[in-house]
Amino acid sequence: MSERDVVVMEDLSRHFVVRRSVGRLRREKRLVRAVDRISFTVGKGECVGYIGANGAGKSTTIKMLTGILVPTSGRVRVCGLEPVRQRRELARRIGVVFGQRSQLWWDLPLAESFRLLAAIHRLPADRAAARLQRCVELLDLGPFLDTPVRQLSLGQRMRGEVTAALLHSPELLLLDEPTVGLDIVSKEALRSFLAAERAEAGTTILLTTHDLPDIERLSDRVVVVDDGRVVHTGTLSGLAAEAGVDRVLTVELTAPGGPLGDVPGTRLLSVEAGGLRQHLALTGSAAAAVAAVSARTELRDLTIAEPDIEDVVTRLYRAAAAARSSTVE
Amino acid sequence: MADTRVYAALLRAGMAGQATYRASFAVELFGTAMGMGLDFVEIFAVFHQVPSIAGLSFVEVVLVFAIASTGFSTADLLVGQSDVVIRHVRDGTFDVVLLRPLSVLGQLAAADVQLRRLGRVSVSLLLLVVVLVRLDLDWTPARAAMAVLAPIAATVVFGALFVAAGGIAFWVVDATEVTSALTYGSAYLAQWPTGVLTPVLARLFTFVIPAAFTGYLPALALLGKPDPTGLPDWLPWASPLAAVAAAVAAGLVWRSGVRHYVGAGG
Description:
The structure holds 2 protein chains of 2 kinds.
Chain A: E1 5-22, E2 26-43, E3 47-51, H1 58-66, E4 73-78, H2 87-93, E5 94-98, H3 110-120, H4 125-139, H5 154-166, E6 172-176, H6 184-201, E7 204-208, H7 212-218, E8 221-226, E9 229-234, H8 236-243, E10 247-253, E11 266-272, E12 277-282, H9 286-296, E13 299-305, H10 309-328
Parallel strand pairs in A: 3-7, 3-8, 5-6, 6-7
Antiparallel strand pairs in A: 1-2, 1-4, 8-9, 10-12, 10-13, 11-12
Chain B: H1 2-20, H2 22-49, H3 58-79, H4 82-91, H5 94-98, H6 104-111, H7 118-135, H8 141-171, H9 176-190, H10 199-208, H11 216-223, H12 239-264
Helix pairs in contact in B: 1-6, 2-3, 2-7, 3-7, 3-8, 3-11, 4-8, 8-9, 8-11, 8-12
């Protein structure tokens, strides 16, 4: 662990005891390991995508990072602080967005919520105004600043939530499913904003999501959890490769051409319509591959098919399970 | 205290919704004042049958009632939302409260102050002033200080009961029955002289649930009368200290409640 790590988790576990009735009188206790000896760090300025299926332990981890939940065992440090013991101090230094839970005031206009949060974080008036101005511009909040939060659409509200989490310029931004339920335009607006915010302020981001494009757009690194354990850490393309699922770039050319078998960062999968349509598996960045293809021949259209996140995780988990059972034998 | 400004802002935000419906607010304000009037009628009815209760005359019992009622209604106005904690825990919005760099109790109190309860506060205070004037007490500096401190101490004791009830609510989510008995039950009892109870019960409502310190005992100090169940004569003067002790104990119960929530994850 270095001083530059904003988030440090060492063997972090959280168990829940679930009681349930068995028969008429007996009650059975069952131990659920929501998070099971997870270790990973997030460096300063890094953006890590924390992915996994529902119930994999993502939200439990986020709760332990924010001081809402005490770990059963292990060690956790966020911004050099102990989350539960130093909750209030930590709250000044992190921003949190729970996709499913609002931290805005339901009955008040959005602008009023921001005013309250600025007061809560004791922001000087000019700094709060400048900060808000930037968010209003980039996230296009202007048209509904005076609307009570309860009347906002989900997309509008999420833009408000992100602004609320960033108003005090936190060092670390924790995003729990920030794009869940949003339409494509809102998703894209949010992603661009977060990318710009990161580039400008160097904010460290840990985000959980179901949406691979979120990760692709924002993260340097992904951590995959399944059943409370880390099953993979690495880059997104590395993840897809390890799971044996491809991100497929389909190019349509203006004139039939020879097979594009040697484009860097790709592997040719198939050729259709006499070379008019070709499918390439991406092993590197999509942008570089597209640039390489268009340098060679004229493109009419292109699509990128992302592997489904659940699919990737399921495959990874099976692979991990298979590896475990083979080492046992 | 830069935080005072923050809580004031939260308070205004919490009240913004209530002032929106002016007509119903006025009715509710009147309603809380009426509720107190009904409690008062009960004292009238009892004194129609008996000349004195536990050695206290009608006006003297009204003094007990007025001190307790002022304390209860003020505490109810400020921290009377122990049921709100349960709602926050159930909705999961309690997590958001924990995400802010402020005290949990302060946020909850500021967010849910019920202005309509001002109705009862003002009527109780008025009654207290009237009865203090009517009683023609033997005023000493100590009694004057007690006259001012008694309603404040009563507010602190009832506030402690509400906060303790909120703390318990973290442990037992369906605790409304228990916590209401603790808060509203003590409030009802506190309006009457604890001296009418058997010595054992009187001690229970003095030393375990400090209801006697909210009206009866400070009234004895002001009136210069002894307690018929045999409590020492200095005890009534210790009401402000009892209030401090109750506040500390309630703070511990509340803290353990929040700890439990953080430990259990809701």
